[in-house]
Design goal:
Strand content: 5-15%
CATH architecture: 3-Layer(aba) Sandwich
CATH class: Alpha Beta
Strand order of the largest sheet: 2-3-1-4-5
CATH topology: Rossmann fold
Number of strands: 5
Structural class: alpha/beta
Oligomer: single chain
Shape: globular
Length: about 210
């Protein structure tokens, strides 16, 4: 690979993203493939400070547009400082959430105009589009069970109705971009999901 590949993982909290990212990284290491891992919001010094503001459960007064702009600011910093340089080095870049989360959470979840979000997403990524996106889909009752007694952050403690809209948004996005987005049934065994993800990645790198 000359230019690297951007692989993003999306889904509701509790969907299994962390587990699958760890499994994916292990396979990359076993295959001798160079990679870098980032998370959103965050991934840079400035981005991590923005993350603290965004997820602080005491910040209930935060307005939807404020939230949207903060996510976009963190993403731009990460894209320009870290993601693009890594791609230029030919590395596989794995991102735990990217702009699809903004479309799902702030667009479908908060009800902010999707055209505005599309424009901001483009600006915040310098028009960078993931090569492959995995959305891990789970039912809301499964999400609730998996989160258990975890202390929830500001977004996680939103209403069931909010997370239902977010999930529906993820599903709609997968249907609208089937060449880029793979909708994964997150209710299966971790190994079965990991195998499916790795198979899709191998199809991509063989193109």
């Amino acid at each position: 690979m000359n230019r690297g590949l951007l692989i993003t993982f999306e889904g509701l909290d509790g969907s299994g993203k962390t587990t699958q990212i760890e499994a994916f990284i292990q396979r990359l290491e076993n295959s001798g493939i160079s990679y870098q891992l980032f998370r959103e919001p965050g991934g840079t010094i400035i981005g991590e400070k923005i993350r603290q503001v965004l997820l602080d459960k005491d910040h209930t007064a935060m307005l939807p547009i404020t939230e949207l702009l903060l996510y976009s600011a963190s993403r731009y910093q990460l894209t320009m400082n870290s993601i693009i340089p890594a791609l230029e080095k030919g590395q596989v870049v794995i991102c735990d959430r990217f702009y699809d989360s903004t479309t799902a959470y702030q667009g479908y979840g908060r009800g902010i105009d999707l055209n505005l979000i599309k424009q901001l997403n483009r600006a915040a990524t310098a028009s960078l589009v993931p090569d492959l996106t995995f959305i891990l889909d789970i039912e809301l009752d499964v999400r609730k069970k998996r989160l258990g007694e975890k202390v929830l952050d500001r977004l996680e403690q939103e209403t069931i109705e909010f997370h239902k809209r977010v999930r529906e948004g993820f599903i709609q996005m997968a249907h609208s971009e089937p060449k880029r987005i793979v909708l994964i049934d997150g209710n299966r065994s971790a190994n079965a999901i990991s195998d499916e993800i790795w198979n899709h990645f191998n199809l991509l790198i063989k193109k």
